[in-house]
Design a protein that fits this description.
The complex is a heterotrimer of chains A (351), B (753) and C (165). With 351 residues, chain A is an alpha+beta fold. Chain A has 13 helices and 12 strands. In chain A, the strands form 3 sheets. Chain A has a 5-stranded antiparallel sheet with strand order 4-5-8-6-7. In chain A, strand 4 and strand 5 form a beta hairpin. In chain A, helix 11 runs antiparallel to helix 12 and helix 12 packs antiparallel against helix 13. Chain A is globular and about 60 Å long. Chain B is of the alpha+beta class and 753 residues long. Chain B folds into 3 domains: 181 residues, Aldehyde Oxidoreductase, domain 3 (Alpha-Beta Complex); 306 residues, Aldehyde Oxidoreductase, domain 4 (2-Layer Sandwich), CATH 3.30.365; 144 residues, Aldehyde Oxidoreductase, domain 4 (2-Layer Sandwich). In chain B, the strands form 7 sheets. In chain B, strands 3-5-1-14-11-12-13 form a 7-stranded mixed sheet, sandwiched between helices. Chain B has a 6-stranded mixed sheet with strand order 9-17-16-15-10-30. In chain B, a hairpin with a 5-residue loop joins strand 18 and strand 19. Chain C is globular. In chain C, 65% of the residues are buried. The chains are: A alpha+beta (351), B alpha+beta (753), C alpha+beta (165). At the B-C interface, helix 1, helix 3 and helix 14 of B face helix 1, helix 2, helix 3, helix 4 and helix 5 of C.
C-alpha cells in the first residue's frame, strides 16, 4: 500500500475541502477501498476518513412518506431495521444476500453505492484495463469472461457492477443526496452509475470530491412491499457475487399489475433497470405468459461479450422467477438463505 | 516459542482407556483460546519482515527491478535479488533424491510460471516491506507461455505419482471392448486446484552463527531439515525446525518450498531474524497444486452388466522444469472386477509451478471420472448403480490378482445405502422433485485409498515416578496427531493418557517421516507401538530378573502392562508398579526406541486399501441451474479407528472436498498469459458453511492383521474419493444432464428445463 | 507523521503513537501488540480468519484501518475466556470438534459470538449455516461448528433463563 496522508475532518464541509486535493479519496468502512489498495488497484495520496462525521448514520422517515438513509448506516443495521425490512423487503433481502455478515456489519450504504467492479482484469494490475487506466485497452474482451456483461457494454469495457443492494434500489427509484464543492444536489440512482462507452474509467456521475450524504427512497417505493423479491444465482450458496440477479416489485390491484418494477444485477456496468419490460406488465394479469414476455423484452438488446451467452438466458429465467415469487407475495419472514433459489427449502415461513 | 503446554479441556472426555475412544482434542484449549502458536505467530527480538515480489508473467525473463525505489521507501532494509543474495551450498536445481522438487530461490532471472518469486524485500515493518515489493515494478522480456492440456507435444512420463509406472495392462482390453454388449466411451475433464490451506506458508528464520532456528509449517520436518542442511551446507544438528501446529497442509507443506528457503536466505542476508508469510495470491504458484486432467474412459459390459474391459487414459501436465504427474488413471486398478484393465498416462509441459501432491493425488481426479463412467454404464445397462457395482465387486485386486488384506466394502455399500434410503431411488433421471419444485437427484460413488506405511521412529521412556514419555517428531495438521498418537502411546506404555508426556512437532525428536499418504497415524503409531513394547520389555527384564519382585521368573510366561503396572500374563494377581520396579533397581528411567515401517512380505502377498461408499442427494433449480448438496452419507472401512471423533471429522472434511471438487473448485488460467485470474479466496470458490449439508459418516468395523501392527489404514484422503463422483452422479440423476467437466457449472445445466 | 490513537483491547485501554496510517487492525494486533490469536488467512476480507468484535460487532480486521478506529472497543479471541473458564462457544467447539487444524478457529469463534448477539439465527441450523458463511474452513469442520453453535446457544439461553428466573 502506498503511503498516504490520513485526515479526519470534523464536518462535511471540511471533508469536501480535504478531498479537493488530487489523489484524495474518501474512506468509509474501507471494505472495498482497502481491498483495492492492497491489490495496488487504487493508490490514493490521501484518505479523507468520513466515518467520524456526525449525523450520517440515521434512518429517518420523512413527512412525505419517503425514507432517508444516512450514508454511514451499515448494511447490516439497515437490513435489520424492522421498519425498513417491512417497507422495502426486496432491498433488505438483497442486502442480506451480499458478502458476509462481517462485511455487512462494516460496509456502509454510501460505500456500497460506490463499490467497484469485480472484473478480474480490473483487479489484476498486470492486465490491461480501461477502467483502471484510461486508454490502456481491455484484456477481458478476449479473456476469461464468462461472468462479464451482456447489456450496455462497449468494446472498451465489459465489466459488471457487483452490488446486490443497488438492484432493488434502482427498481424503486432511489435517489442519492450528494454534497460537493457546488453545494448539495441529488440525482436518481439510475443516473449515478454510468455505462462504459468510451470512458469506462468513470464509474459514476460523481465529481472526485463529491460526497454521498444519504440515500432516499421516494414515497411510492413502499407501495410495493406486499409483492417484492430479490433473487440471486450464485456459484456457491453464500458469500459469492451474483452470476445474475433480479429484483421484482409489483403493485397488484384488483388482480392486475398496476405497476411493475424490474431490475437486473450482474449483467451490466450498472444495476440494470428494465423499464421496457415494466411497460409490458402494466395493467395485465400476473401470469406466467406475461412474465415471460416481460423477460424477453428486458433482454431484447442483450448480446454476449464473450463466453457468457448463457447469462442472457439465465437473466430471462431469473426475471420470470423473481416476478413469480413477487406475485405470490412477500414472505412474512426473510428466508434463511436470503435471495437464494434454495430459500424455500429452508423451512422458512412464507406468506 | 514457549514450551507447548497442552491442557485438559473441561469437556475432555474419557471413557476407560485410549485407543478407540472419542477423546476430545488435547490441543483443543490452545486452539480455541488463540494460544496455539502457528509459524507466523512468532516474533523473535529484532525480527524484520520479508515480502516476496512475484512474476506477473508466466514465461520469460526479468530484465529490471527498481531496487532503488524500493530501498528509498522508509523502513526498507534490503532487497534480495538474483544479484544480491547469500550463496547456497549446492545448486537448488540438483535433485539429490526423488523427493526433492525444484524451487525458485532467485537462482536466475528466468521466469518459469506466473507468481514465481523474483525478489524479496526486507523491512522494519510489514507495511514497508509490502510497499517495497510493489515499488520494484519489474520489467520483463516475455515469451509466449505454454498453457493448458494441449500446450504442446505430449509424451509418456517415465513414472506417475510416486514411482508408479505410467501404464498398466491386465488382460486383453480391445478384445473385451469388442465383445461388449454395452460400451461407454467418454471424456472427463478436471481443472487445476490449489490446496489453499487456511494458513498461508510462513517461515520465521533466526540464524545464530551457524545454527538455524526455524518456525515453519511442515508435514515432514526431518526431511525439511535435511533439505535446509544441504542447501546451506550445515550439519542437520545445527538446524531446529518447530512445527507444533500446521494451519492445514493437504500436501502443500510436505516439502519445503521456494518461499520458505527465501525466508532463510533473507534472514542470512540481513543478519537478523526474518518473518516471511505468503500473501494469499502467492499461494497460486510456488507451493504446488493439483494438475488438471483430461481422462478418456472406455468401458465394456456384457448383457448381465458384467464388465468386460476397462480402459482409462489420463492426460495431465507438469511444469517445464520438473516432473510430477497426477496418477489419475491408477484409480481404475483396484475397484471393479474387469477381466481386462488398461491404464495409461501422457502429459504436456506448461508454464506453471510444478503440480504436487494434493489430498488424494490421482485418486481424487481419477475417482470422479471412473465413478461417473461406472454410473453411465449402469444406466446403459438399465441397472441400479449400486447393483451394478455389486455385480462387478472385486474379490481380489483386479490389476494384480492379489487378495485384499481386508475389504469390508460390501458392508459399506449395505450400511451406507440403508442409512441413505437408497432402495427408494428411481432408476431414470429427473424423476424426483421436492415440495418447492426443485429437482432432486441421488448419486453414489465408491471410495478407495491405499493403506500405506512409511518409516518412522519413536522414543519411549518410563520414569521412576511412574509416568511415561513418548517422543516422536510427528505433525499435527488438523488430523489430530497430538491426541490420536498420544492415545496409542498411552496404551503402549500401559499408562493413563494424563501420565504420558507426549512430545511432537519438533525436528529434534525422532523422525516421524512424512504426514502424508493417509499414513501418518499408521506409521507413527507403529513406531510408538514398537518403542512402547521395547521399553516395557526393558522394564520387564528388570523385574523378572530380580528375585525381590513378584514378577521374578515370569520371563517365559511374559508380562502385560496396564495402569502403570506390570502383571504376570498367567497370573494377574501378581504385579508390580513401574515406580516400584525402577525404585528398587535404583534407576531414574528406562528408555527404548522403536520403528514403524512397511512389512515387505505382507506387501508382496496382499493388496492393501481402505474402502468406502458415498451417497449424495442434490437439489437443482430446474430453471436457474444452481445446485446444492442437501444430504451425504459415507460409510468407510479403514481398519482400526484410533479416535472416532477425529476420524469422523477427517472423513467429513474429505467428503466436503469431494463436494467441492464436483461443484466449486477451479483455478481459471488466462489462456494468453498463463496467469491465474482468480488467485484469491473470493473467486476461487471453496465451500462455505451454507454449502455443506448435514453429513453422516459410518465407520464400518474392519480388522486387518496385515497392514501394520495396529491394523490402521488411514482416513485422511479417502473421503474425497467416491464423494466427488457421488455428487456428480446425483446432479445427473436430478437433471438428466451428464456433465463431464468438473466443477459442474451453472451454464451446463441450463440446456433444458 | 505519528498519530495518537487509543483503543480498548480486551477490556484494557491502550494508547499508541501510530507511525504509519496503513496499519490495519489485524496487523496492529498481530505484529505490534503480539496478540496473534487473530489470524491472517487472505488479508482481503474473503476468509473470515481475522474476525474480531469492534464495538460488539464482528468485522474483518484485515479491511479495517487501525487509525480509523480510534476510540473503538475491541474484543479478540484472547479476551473471550474468563481466566481458565472458557466461553460456552469455546467449550462447545472442543466438545463438538468444531475444528481440525485450528487456524480458522479464532475467527469462527468470534464470528459465532458476534452472530449470537445479532440474534438473527437463533437455533435454526440453516440460518446458522448462512450466518457463519463468512468464515471459511478448509479442513471442513462445518458440521461441528454448527453443532457447537447450537449447543452454546442452548446453554446460554438456559443460563439466561436461570438468571432471570
Amino acid at each position: 500500500m502506498k503511503p498516504f496522508d490520513y485526515v479526519r475532518p470534523g464536518t462535511v464541509a471540511e471533508a469536501i475541502a480535504a478531498a479537493a486535493q488530487p489523489g484524495a479519496v474518501y474512506l468509509a468502512a474501507g471494505t472495498n477501498l482497502l481491498d483495492l489498495m492492497k491489490g495496488g488497484v487504487s493508490r490514493p495520496n490521501r484518505l479523507v476518513d468520513v466515518t467520524h462525521l456526525d449525523g450520517l448514520d440515521r434512518i429517518e422517515r420523512l413527512a412525505d412518506g419517503s425514507l432517508r438513509v444516512g450514508a454511514l448506516v451499515s448494511n447490516a443495521d439497515l437490513a435489520h431495521d424492522s421498519e425498513f425490512a417491512r417497507s422495502y423487503p426486496a432491498v433488505a433481502e438483497a442486502l442480506l444476500s451480499g458478502a458476509s455478515a462481517q462485511l455487512r456489519n462494516a460496509a456502509t450504504v454510501g460505500g456500497n453505492l460506490l463499490q467497484r467492479t469485480r472484473c478480474t482484469y480490473f483487479y489484476d494490475t498486470a492486465s490491461r484495463c480501461n477502467k483502471r487506466e484510461a486508454g490502456r485497452g481491455c484484456n477481458a474482451r478476449d479473456g476469461e469472461n464468462r461472468s462479464h456483461a451482456v447489456l450496455g457494454w462497449s468494446e472498451s469495457c465489459i465489466a459488471t457492477h457487483p452490488s446486490d443492494f443497488c438492484v432493488p434500489l434502482v427498481a424503486l427509484d432511489a435517489v442519492v443526496e450528494i454534497e460537493g464543492r457546488t453545494g448539495r444536489r441529488e440525482i436518481a440512482l439510475d443516473e449515478l452509475h454510468r455505462l462504459p462507452g468510451n470512458t469506462p474509467e468513470r464509474d459514476t456521475a460523481l465529481e472526485p470530491d463529491d460526497l454521498i450524504i444519504a440515500l432516499r427512497l421516494p414515497p411510492a417505493a413502499r407501495s410495493f412491499a406486499a409483492h417484492a423479491r430479490y433473487l440471486k444465482v450464485r456459484e456457491r450458496t453464500s458469500y459469492a457475487f451474483a452470476v445474475v440477479s433480479a429484483a421484482a416489485a409489483l403493485r397488484i390491484e384488483n388482480g392486475k399489475i398496476a405497476e411493475a418494477r424490474l431490475a437486473l444485477g450482474g449483467v451490466a456496468a450498472k444495476p440494470w433497470r428494465a423499464r421496457a419490460a415494466e411497460d409490458v406488465l402494466r395493467s395485465v394479469a400476473p401470469t406466467a405468459d406475461a412474465f415471460r414476455d416481460a423477460a424477453w423484452r428486458a433482454l431484447a438488446d442483450a448480446k454476449p461479450s464473450g463466453d457468457n451467452a448463457y447469462k442472457i438466458e439465465l437473466a430471462r429465467r431469473i426475471l420470470v422467477r423473481a416476478l413469480t415469487l413477487a406475485a405470490a407475495g412477500t414472505p412474512a419472514r426473510l428466508p434463511a438463505l436470503p435471495a437464494s433459489p434454495f430459500a424455500s427449502t429452508s423451512g422458512a415461513v412464507h406468506a | 516459542m514457549p514450551e507447548l503446554n497442552l491442557t485438559s479441556a473441561p469437556a475432555h472426555l474419557r471413557h476407560g482407556s485410549n485407543i478407540g475412544q472419542p477423546l476430545t482434542r488435547r490441543d483443543g484449549v490452545l486452539k480455541v483460546t488463540g494460544r496455539a502458536t502457528y509459524a507466523a505467530d512468532n516474533h523473535p527480538p529484532g525480527m524484520l519482515f520479508a515480502v516476496m515480489a512475484v512474476a506477473s508473467i508466466a514465461r520469460g525473463h526479468v530484465i529490471s527491478l527498481d531496487v532503488a525505489a524500493a530501498k528509498r521507501h522508509p523502513g526498507v532494509v534490503d532487497v534480495m535479488t538474483p544479484d544480491h543474495k547469500p550463496a547456497l551450498a549446492i545448486d537448488p536445481d540438483i535433485k539429490t533424491n526423488p523427493f526433492v522438487f525444484r524451487m525458485e530461490v532467485l537462482q536466475s532471472n528466468e521466469v518459469r510460471y506466473a507468481n514465481q518469486p523474483i525478489a524479496v524485500v526486507i523491512a522494519e515493518t510489514l507495511e514497508a516491506a509490502t510497499e517495497g515489493a510493489a515499488l520494484l515494478a519489474p520489467r520483463y522480456e516475455t515469451l509466449p507461455p505454454l498453457v493448458g492440456l494441449d500446450a504442446g507435444e505430449s509424451f509418456v512420463p517415465p513414472v506417475v505419482g510416486v514411482g508408479n509406472p505410467a501404464a498398466h495392462h491386465h488382460g486383453d482390453v480391445e478384445a473385451g471392448l469388442a465383445s461388449a454388449e454395452k460400451q461407454i466411451d467418454a471424456v472427463y475433464e478436471t481443472r487445476p486446484q490449489y490446496h489453499n490451506a487456511m494458513e498461508p506458508h510462513a517461515i520465521v528464520a533466526h540464524w545464530d552463527g551457524d545454527t538455524l532456528s526455524i518456525d515453519t509449517p511442515s508435514q515432514a520436518m526431518v526431511m525439511a531439515r535435511a533439505r535446509v542442511a544441504e542447501l546451506f551446507g550445515l550439519a542437520p544438528e545445527k538446524i531446529h525446525i518447530r512445527s507444533p501446529f500446521l494451519g492445514g497442509g493437504f500436501g502443500s507443506k510436505g516439502f519445503l518450498t521456494g518461499p520458505q528457503i527465501l525466508g532463510l536466505m533473507a534472514a542470512k542476508l540481513v543478519g537478523r531474524p526474518v518473518k516471511l508469510v505468503l500473501r494469499r495470491e502467492q499461494m497460486y504458484g510456488p507451493v504446488g497444486h493439483r494438475a488438471p486432467t483430461r481422462q478418456r474412459l472406455r468401458i465394456g459390459a456384457n448383457g448381465e452388466g458384467r464388465l468386460t474391459a476397462l480402459d482409462h487414459h489420463a492426460r495431465t501436465v507438469s511444469s517445464t522444469f520438473d516432473d510430477f504427474y497426477e496418477p489419475a488413471a491408477d484409480a481404475s486398478h483396484t475397484l471393479y472386477a474387469a477381466p481386462a484393465i488398461r491404464t495409461t498416462h501422457d502429459a504436456v509441459r506448461v508454464n506453471t509451478g510444478t503440480p504436487l501432491f494434493m489430498r488424494a493425488p490421482g485418486e481424487a481426479t481419477g475417482s470422479i471420472a471412473l465413478e461417473s463412467a461406472i454410473d453411465e454404464m449402469a444406466w446403459a445397462c438399465s441397472m441400479d448403480p449400486l447393483a451394478f457395482r455389486l455385480r462387478n465387486y472385486a474379490e481380489v485386486e483386479p490389476i494384480t490378482g492379489k487378495p485384499f488384506s481386508s475389504k469390508a466394502l460390501r458392508a459399506c455399500y449395505e450400511q451406507g445405502a440403508a442409512r441413505f434410503g437408497w432402495a427408494k431411488r428411481p432408476l431414470p433421471p429427473r424423476q424426483m422433485r421436492d415440495g418447492a419444485g426443485l429437482l432432486v437427484g441421488w448419486g453414489m460413488g465408491t471410495a478407495t485409498f491405499p493403506a500405506l506405511m512409511f518409516q518412522a521412529e519413536a522414543r519411549a521412556v518410563i520414569r521412576r515416578d511412574g509416568s511415561g514419555a513418548m517422543e516422536i517428531g510427528a505433525h499435527d495438521m488438523g488430523q489430530g496427531a497430538w491426541t490420536a498418537l498420544a492415545q496409542i502411546a498411552a496404551d503402549e506404555l500401559g499408562l493413563d493418557i494424563d501420565r504420558v508426556e507426549f512430545k511432537a512437532g519438533s525436528s529434534d525428536l525422532p523422525d516421524a517421516g512424512i504426514a502424508g499418504g493417509s499414513a501418518h497415524t499408521a506409521t507413527a503409531g507403529a513406531a510408538i507401538h514398537s518403542a512402547g513394547a521395547a521399553v516395557i520389555a526393558k522394564l520387564a527384564d528388570l523385574a523378572t530378573n530380580d528375585e525381590r519382585s513378584p514378577l521374578f521368573g515370569a520371563g517365559n510366561a511374559g508380562v502385560v502392562a496396564r495402569d502403570g503396572k506390570l502383571f504376570r500374563r498367567d497370573d494377574e494377581s501378581r504385579g508390580e508398579s513401574y515406580a516400584e520396579i525402577l525404585a528398587r533397581a535404583g534407576i531414574s528411567e528406562v528408555e527404548a526406541r522403536g520403528t514403524g515401517a512397511p512389512n515387505p512380505a505382507a506387501l508382496e502377498e496382499f493388496a492393501m486399501h481402505a474402502h468406502g461408499a458415498v451417497f449424495a442427494e442434490v437439489k437443482v433449480d430446474p430453471e436457474l441451474g444452481q445446485v446444492r448438496v442437501t444430504r451425504m452419507v459415507g460409510a468407510f472401512a479403514a481398519g482400526r479407528i484410533v479416535n472416532p471423533r477425529m476420524v469422523q471429522s477427517q472423513l467429513f472434511g474429505g467428503m466436503i472436498w469431494g463436494l467441492s471438487f464436483a461443484l466449486h473448485e477451479e483455478a481459471i488460467t488466462d489462456r494468453r498469459t498463463g496467469r491465474i485470474m482468480n488467485a484469491n479466496l473470493g473467486e476461487y470458490h471453496i465451500p462455505v458453511n451454507a454449502d455443506v449439508p448435514p453429513l453422516d459418516v459410518i465407520t464400518v468395523e474392519e480388522h486387518d492383521p496385515h497392514v501394520n501392527a495396529l491394523g490402521i489404514k488411514g482416513v485422511g484422503e479417502i473421503g474425497i474419493t467416491g464423494s466427488a463422483g457421488a455428487v456428480a452422479n446425483a446432479v445427473w440423476h436430478a437433471t438428466g444432464v451428464r456433465v463431464r467437466r468438473f466443477p459442474i457449472r451453472i451454464e451446463e445445466l441450463l440446456t433444458q428445463r | 507523521m505519528n498519530h495518537s490513537i487509543s483503543l480498548t483491547v480486551n477490556g484494557v485501554r491502550r494508547d499508541f503513537d501510530l507511525d504509519d496510517p496503513r496499519v490495519t487492525l489485524l496487523d496492529l494486533l498481530r505484529e505490534r501488540l503480539h496478540l496473534t490469536g487473530t489470524k491472517k488467512g487472505c488479508d482481503r476480507g474473503q476468509c473470515g480468519a481475522c474476525t474480531i468484535l469492534v464495538d460488539g460487532k464482528r468485522i474483518n480486521s484485515c479491511l479495517a484501518l487501525a487509525i480509523s478506529h480510534d476510540g473503538a472497543d475491541i474484543l479478540t479471541i484472547e479476551g473471550v475466556a474468563r481466566g481458565d473458564q472458557l466461553h460456552p462457544v469455546q467449550a462447545a467447539f472442543i466438545a463438538h470438534d468444531g475444528f481440525q487444524c485450528g487456524f480458522c478457529t479464532p475467527g469462527q469463534i468470534m464470528s459465532a459470538i458476534g452472530m449470537m448477539s445479532e440474534a438473527q439465527a437463533g437455533n435454526d441450523p440453516e440460518r446458522i449455516r448462512e450466518c457463519m458463511s463468512g468464515n471459511l474452513c478448509r479442513c471442513g469442520a462445518y458440521a461441528g461448528i454448527v453443532d457447537a453453535v447450537l449447543d452454546a446457544q442452548a446453554r446460554m439461553d438456559e443460563s439466561n433463563q436461570r438468571r432471570s428466573a
